[in-house]
Amino acid sequence: MIPEADFGLVDAHIHLWDTRSFDLPWLNAVPQLRTQYTAAEFADGLDGVRLRAAVAVQAGNTAAEATWLLSSARAASALTQAQIGVVLQYARSPDRPLSPWHPLVFADGRFPQGVRLPLVELPTDWTALGGIQELVGYVEHHGLVLELLLRPDQLRAAGELSARHPRLTVVLCHLGLGENEPDGTWQNEIARLAARKNVAAKISGLHTSHPPVPEDHRRARLAAEWALEQWGPDRLMFGSDWPVSTRAGRYTDVLEWTKQALGASSPTELQAMLGLTAASIYKLAGSEPDVQIDKR
Protein backbone atom coordinates (compact mmCIF):
# COMPACT_ATOMS: atom_id res chain seq x y z
CA MET A 1 0.00 0.00 0.00
CA ILE A 2 1.46 3.33 -1.09
CA PRO A 3 1.21 5.94 1.70
CA GLU A 4 -0.97 9.00 1.09
CA ALA A 5 0.86 12.13 0.02
CA ASP A 6 1.46 14.83 2.62
CA PHE A 7 -0.44 17.42 0.57
CA GLY A 8 -3.65 15.38 0.59
CA LEU A 9 -5.82 13.85 -2.09
CA VAL A 10 -7.36 15.98 -4.83
CA ASP A 11 -9.83 14.15 -7.06
CA ALA A 12 -9.83 15.95 -10.41
CA HIS A 13 -12.93 14.23 -11.81
CA ILE A 14 -16.19 13.44 -10.06
CA HIS A 15 -19.82 13.84 -11.10
CA LEU A 16 -22.93 14.62 -9.10
CA TRP A 17 -26.45 14.21 -10.46
CA ASP A 18 -30.04 13.46 -9.52
CA THR A 19 -32.26 12.08 -12.28
CA ARG A 20 -35.34 12.91 -10.19
CA SER A 21 -34.58 16.58 -10.88
CA PHE A 22 -33.24 16.54 -14.46
CA ASP A 23 -32.69 14.09 -17.29
CA LEU A 24 -29.34 12.84 -18.55
CA PRO A 25 -30.05 11.04 -21.85
CA TRP A 26 -26.61 9.41 -22.02
CA LEU A 27 -27.57 7.33 -18.98
CA ASN A 28 -29.89 5.32 -21.22
CA ALA A 29 -26.79 3.30 -22.12
CA VAL A 30 -25.97 2.65 -18.44
CA PRO A 31 -29.37 2.35 -16.73
CA GLN A 32 -27.81 1.17 -13.47
CA LEU A 33 -26.51 4.72 -13.02
CA ARG A 34 -29.90 6.34 -13.64
CA THR A 35 -30.49 7.35 -10.03
CA GLN A 36 -29.28 10.00 -7.62
CA TYR A 37 -25.62 10.62 -6.82
CA THR A 38 -25.85 13.64 -4.59
CA ALA A 39 -23.46 15.27 -2.15
CA ALA A 40 -24.57 12.86 0.57
CA GLU A 41 -23.99 9.79 -1.61
CA PHE A 42 -20.57 11.10 -2.58
CA ALA A 43 -19.55 11.70 1.03
CA ASP A 44 -20.68 8.18 1.97
CA GLY A 45 -19.03 6.67 -1.11
CA LEU A 46 -15.59 7.93 -0.09
CA ASP A 47 -15.37 5.03 2.37
CA GLY A 48 -13.39 7.10 4.83
CA VAL A 49 -10.92 8.53 2.29
CA ARG A 50 -9.95 12.09 3.29
CA LEU A 51 -10.15 14.57 0.44
CA ARG A 52 -8.47 17.94 0.32
CA ALA A 53 -10.37 19.00 -2.81
CA ALA A 54 -12.26 17.68 -5.83
CA VAL A 55 -13.53 18.88 -9.20
CA ALA A 56 -17.21 18.22 -9.95
CA VAL A 57 -17.71 18.05 -13.72
CA GLN A 58 -21.18 18.70 -15.05
CA ALA A 59 -22.67 15.54 -16.56
CA GLY A 60 -25.32 17.20 -18.74
CA ASN A 61 -25.83 20.52 -20.46
CA THR A 62 -28.78 22.40 -19.02
CA ALA A 63 -28.93 25.57 -16.95
CA ALA A 64 -31.13 23.88 -14.34
CA GLU A 65 -28.55 21.16 -13.82
CA ALA A 66 -25.73 23.71 -13.63
CA THR A 67 -27.56 25.56 -10.85
CA TRP A 68 -28.20 22.27 -9.04
CA LEU A 69 -24.54 21.28 -9.40
CA LEU A 70 -23.28 24.50 -7.86
CA SER A 71 -25.54 24.02 -4.86
CA SER A 72 -24.57 20.36 -4.60
CA ALA A 73 -20.86 21.17 -4.75
CA ARG A 74 -21.29 23.45 -1.78
CA ALA A 75 -23.15 20.74 0.08
CA ALA A 76 -20.44 18.20 -0.75
CA SER A 77 -17.80 20.61 0.49
CA ALA A 78 -19.61 20.96 3.81
CA LEU A 79 -20.01 17.20 4.19
CA THR A 80 -16.44 16.24 3.23
CA GLN A 81 -14.60 19.31 4.57
CA ALA A 82 -12.95 19.52 1.14
CA GLN A 83 -13.06 22.30 -1.44
CA ILE A 84 -15.24 21.25 -4.37
CA GLY A 85 -14.65 23.13 -7.61
CA VAL A 86 -17.01 23.04 -10.58
CA VAL A 87 -16.46 22.55 -14.31
CA LEU A 88 -19.47 23.38 -16.48
CA GLN A 89 -20.22 21.53 -19.68
CA TYR A 90 -21.15 22.95 -23.08
CA ALA A 91 -22.72 20.73 -25.69
CA ARG A 92 -23.17 21.78 -29.29
CA SER A 93 -26.71 21.50 -30.61
CA PRO A 94 -26.93 19.79 -34.02
CA ASP A 95 -28.96 22.66 -35.45
CA ARG A 96 -26.97 25.66 -34.24
CA PRO A 97 -23.39 26.64 -33.33
CA LEU A 98 -22.10 26.01 -29.85
CA SER A 99 -23.27 28.90 -27.73
CA PRO A 100 -23.64 29.63 -24.02
CA TRP A 101 -26.93 28.47 -22.51
CA HIS A 102 -26.29 29.91 -19.09
CA PRO A 103 -23.97 32.57 -17.67
CA LEU A 104 -20.43 31.51 -16.88
CA VAL A 105 -20.46 33.75 -13.83
CA PHE A 106 -22.32 32.27 -10.88
CA ALA A 107 -24.80 34.27 -8.86
CA ASP A 108 -22.18 35.19 -6.27
CA GLY A 109 -19.82 36.54 -8.93
CA ARG A 110 -17.42 33.58 -9.02
CA PHE A 111 -16.31 31.86 -12.18
CA PRO A 112 -16.26 28.06 -12.38
CA GLN A 113 -12.88 26.34 -12.49
CA GLY A 114 -13.37 25.49 -16.13
CA VAL A 115 -15.55 24.50 -19.05
CA ARG A 116 -15.73 21.04 -20.63
CA LEU A 117 -16.46 20.33 -24.27
CA PRO A 118 -17.89 16.82 -24.85
CA LEU A 119 -16.81 16.11 -28.41
CA VAL A 120 -16.89 12.33 -28.85
CA GLU A 121 -19.95 12.47 -31.13
CA LEU A 122 -18.55 15.26 -33.31
CA PRO A 123 -16.23 15.14 -36.35
CA THR A 124 -12.51 14.44 -36.13
CA ASP A 125 -11.66 18.08 -36.88
CA TRP A 126 -14.03 19.51 -34.31
CA THR A 127 -12.16 22.82 -34.03
CA ALA A 128 -13.69 23.98 -37.32
CA LEU A 129 -17.24 23.90 -35.94
CA GLY A 130 -19.02 27.19 -35.45
CA GLY A 131 -18.77 28.75 -32.01
CA ILE A 132 -15.80 26.71 -30.80
CA GLN A 133 -13.21 29.43 -31.32
CA GLU A 134 -15.38 32.06 -29.65
CA LEU A 135 -15.88 29.91 -26.59
CA VAL A 136 -12.19 29.00 -26.42
CA GLY A 137 -11.29 32.68 -26.59
CA TYR A 138 -13.66 33.46 -23.73
CA VAL A 139 -12.28 30.65 -21.56
CA GLU A 140 -8.71 31.74 -22.28
CA HIS A 141 -9.45 35.41 -21.56
CA HIS A 142 -10.87 34.60 -18.13
CA GLY A 143 -8.10 32.18 -17.18
CA LEU A 144 -10.35 29.14 -16.97
CA VAL A 145 -9.45 25.53 -17.74
CA LEU A 146 -10.72 24.05 -21.00
CA GLU A 147 -11.50 20.37 -20.55
CA LEU A 148 -11.84 18.12 -23.59
CA LEU A 149 -13.66 14.79 -23.79
CA LEU A 150 -12.30 13.22 -26.97
CA ARG A 151 -11.89 10.10 -29.06
CA PRO A 152 -8.33 9.09 -30.00
CA ASP A 153 -8.80 10.32 -33.59
CA GLN A 154 -9.67 13.80 -32.26
CA LEU A 155 -6.46 14.26 -30.29
CA ARG A 156 -4.52 15.86 -33.12
CA ALA A 157 -7.06 18.67 -33.42
CA ALA A 158 -6.65 19.30 -29.69
CA GLY A 159 -2.92 19.74 -30.16
CA GLU A 160 -3.45 22.18 -33.00
CA LEU A 161 -5.90 24.22 -30.94
CA SER A 162 -3.49 24.25 -27.99
CA ALA A 163 -0.73 25.53 -30.26
CA ARG A 164 -2.94 28.39 -31.44
CA HIS A 165 -3.80 29.32 -27.84
CA PRO A 166 -0.54 28.95 -25.88
CA ARG A 167 -1.93 30.79 -22.83
CA LEU A 168 -4.93 28.49 -22.59
CA THR A 169 -4.78 25.63 -20.06
CA VAL A 170 -6.18 22.49 -21.70
CA VAL A 171 -7.00 19.31 -19.76
CA LEU A 172 -7.68 16.01 -21.49
CA CYS A 173 -10.33 13.87 -19.78
CA HIS A 174 -9.79 10.12 -19.39
CA LEU A 175 -6.51 10.28 -21.37
CA GLY A 176 -8.56 10.60 -24.57
CA LEU A 177 -8.84 6.82 -24.55
CA GLY A 178 -12.46 5.94 -23.90
CA GLU A 179 -12.84 2.16 -24.09
CA ASN A 180 -10.16 1.84 -26.78
CA GLU A 181 -6.84 0.07 -26.44
CA PRO A 182 -3.72 2.18 -25.74
CA ASP A 183 -2.29 1.11 -29.08
CA GLY A 184 0.43 2.66 -31.21
CA THR A 185 -1.90 5.14 -32.87
CA TRP A 186 -3.14 6.43 -29.52
CA GLN A 187 0.41 6.55 -28.16
CA ASN A 188 1.63 8.62 -31.10
CA GLU A 189 -1.22 11.10 -30.77
CA ILE A 190 -0.71 11.39 -27.01
CA ALA A 191 3.00 12.04 -27.50
CA ARG A 192 2.20 14.77 -30.00
CA LEU A 193 -0.41 16.36 -27.72
CA ALA A 194 1.75 16.16 -24.59
CA ALA A 195 4.49 18.06 -26.42
CA ARG A 196 2.23 21.11 -26.01
CA LYS A 197 3.29 22.41 -22.62
CA ASN A 198 -0.10 24.01 -21.92
CA VAL A 199 -1.86 20.62 -21.99
CA ALA A 200 -2.42 18.38 -18.96
CA ALA A 201 -4.44 15.19 -18.54
CA LYS A 202 -6.52 13.20 -16.09
CA ILE A 203 -5.78 9.58 -15.30
CA SER A 204 -9.44 8.69 -15.02
CA GLY A 205 -12.12 6.48 -16.51
CA LEU A 206 -9.74 3.56 -17.03
CA HIS A 207 -11.68 1.01 -14.95
CA THR A 208 -15.25 0.47 -16.13
CA SER A 209 -16.07 -3.26 -16.05
CA HIS A 210 -17.44 -5.14 -13.06
CA PRO A 211 -15.69 -6.95 -11.70
CA PRO A 212 -12.40 -5.84 -13.25
CA VAL A 213 -10.44 -8.61 -14.92
CA PRO A 214 -6.65 -8.77 -15.36
CA GLU A 215 -7.05 -7.36 -18.87
CA ASP A 216 -8.58 -4.16 -17.42
CA HIS A 217 -5.64 -3.64 -15.09
CA ARG A 218 -3.18 -4.35 -17.92
CA ARG A 219 -4.88 -1.74 -20.11
CA ALA A 220 -4.92 0.83 -17.30
CA ARG A 221 -1.25 0.22 -16.50
CA LEU A 222 -0.15 0.57 -20.13
CA ALA A 223 -2.14 3.77 -20.56
CA ALA A 224 -0.93 5.29 -17.28
CA GLU A 225 2.71 4.40 -17.92
CA TRP A 226 2.66 5.97 -21.38
CA ALA A 227 0.87 9.07 -20.10
CA LEU A 228 3.41 9.49 -17.30
CA GLU A 229 6.30 9.09 -19.73
CA GLN A 230 4.87 11.79 -22.00
CA TRP A 231 3.43 14.30 -19.54
CA GLY A 232 5.37 13.73 -16.36
CA PRO A 233 3.79 13.99 -12.89
CA ASP A 234 3.44 17.77 -13.01
CA ARG A 235 0.81 17.55 -15.77
CA LEU A 236 -1.07 14.40 -14.74
CA MET A 237 -3.95 14.22 -12.24
CA PHE A 238 -5.90 11.45 -10.57
CA GLY A 239 -9.63 11.42 -11.26
CA SER A 240 -11.93 8.78 -9.80
CA ASP A 241 -14.76 9.36 -12.31
CA TRP A 242 -17.18 8.69 -9.46
CA PRO A 243 -20.00 7.55 -9.72
CA VAL A 244 -19.35 6.05 -13.18
CA SER A 245 -16.49 4.17 -11.53
CA THR A 246 -18.90 2.44 -9.15
CA ARG A 247 -19.61 0.01 -11.98
CA ALA A 248 -16.11 -1.35 -11.37
CA GLY A 249 -15.64 -0.96 -7.64
CA ARG A 250 -15.67 1.22 -4.55
CA TYR A 251 -13.89 4.56 -4.31
CA THR A 252 -11.05 2.98 -2.37
CA ASP A 253 -10.68 0.32 -5.07
CA VAL A 254 -10.36 2.86 -7.88
CA LEU A 255 -7.84 4.89 -5.90
CA GLU A 256 -5.74 1.81 -5.19
CA TRP A 257 -5.95 0.56 -8.80
CA THR A 258 -4.74 3.95 -10.01
CA LYS A 259 -1.80 3.85 -7.61
CA GLN A 260 -0.95 0.37 -8.83
CA ALA A 261 -1.06 1.54 -12.45
CA LEU A 262 1.42 4.24 -11.44
CA GLY A 263 3.43 1.79 -9.35
CA ALA A 264 6.85 2.78 -10.69
CA SER A 265 6.36 6.37 -9.52
CA SER A 266 8.31 7.87 -6.65
CA PRO A 267 6.50 9.26 -3.56
CA THR A 268 7.15 12.78 -4.83
CA GLU A 269 5.65 11.96 -8.22
CA LEU A 270 2.61 10.39 -6.58
CA GLN A 271 2.16 13.47 -4.40
CA ALA A 272 1.94 15.55 -7.56
CA MET A 273 -0.48 13.28 -9.42
CA LEU A 274 -2.71 12.64 -6.41
CA GLY A 275 -2.96 16.23 -5.29
CA LEU A 276 -0.57 19.03 -6.12
CA THR A 277 -1.03 19.12 -9.88
CA ALA A 278 -4.82 19.31 -9.78
CA ALA A 279 -4.78 21.84 -6.95
CA SER A 280 -2.49 24.05 -9.01
CA ILE A 281 -4.29 23.75 -12.34
CA TYR A 282 -7.77 24.25 -10.89
CA LYS A 283 -6.68 26.75 -8.21
CA LEU A 284 -7.99 24.63 -5.36
CA ALA A 285 -7.13 23.96 -1.72
CA GLY A 286 -5.39 27.28 -1.24
CA SER A 287 -2.60 26.05 -3.49
CA GLU A 288 0.05 28.50 -4.54
CA PRO A 289 0.98 26.75 -7.78
CA ASP A 290 4.49 25.47 -7.36
CA VAL A 291 3.48 23.10 -10.16
CA GLN A 292 2.53 25.16 -13.19
CA ILE A 293 1.45 24.65 -16.75
CA ASP A 294 4.02 26.27 -19.03
CA LYS A 295 2.24 28.98 -21.04
CA ARG A 296 5.22 30.50 -22.75
Automatic annotation (TrEMBL):
One Gene Ontology term of the molecular function aspect: hydrolase activity
Pfam families given in the database record: Amidohydro_2
Domain Amidohydrolase-related: residue ranges: 10-284
Record PANTHER family: AMIDOHYDROLASE, AMIDOHYDROLASE-RELATED DOMAIN-CONTAINING PROTEIN
Family listed: Belongs to the metallo-dependent hydrolases superfamily.
Name by which UniProt lists this protein: Amidohydrolase-related domain-containing protein
